[in-house]
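User: I'm writing a tutorial on reading structure tokens. Could you give me a worked example: one chain, its sequence, then its tokens, then a sentence or two explaining what the tokens reveal?
Assistant: Sure. Here is the example chain.
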Amino acid sequence: MWTPNFYFKLICLVILWVLTLKNFEIVSKIETLQTFDPYDILGIDVNSKMSEIRRRYRRLSLEKHPDKNKENPLAV
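And here are its predicted structure tokens:
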């Protein structure tokens, strides 16, 4: 049981555990993501009609599309 192969596997296991704990520590320090609210992104009310949602989506997609709005650096 106490062969060099066993020690090698044990060292690898310990290293993987240490890396896992370090990764958990780093990820836990990352700020939480903002919630995704499509109505807020489109700038419309939650009770909007489907036609208003489609109209606002098409208008916003033209504003943000890099081929349609070449002068805007945010569209790229």
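What the tokens reveal: Residues 4-28 form the longest helix (25 residues). DSSP finds three helices and no strands in the chain.
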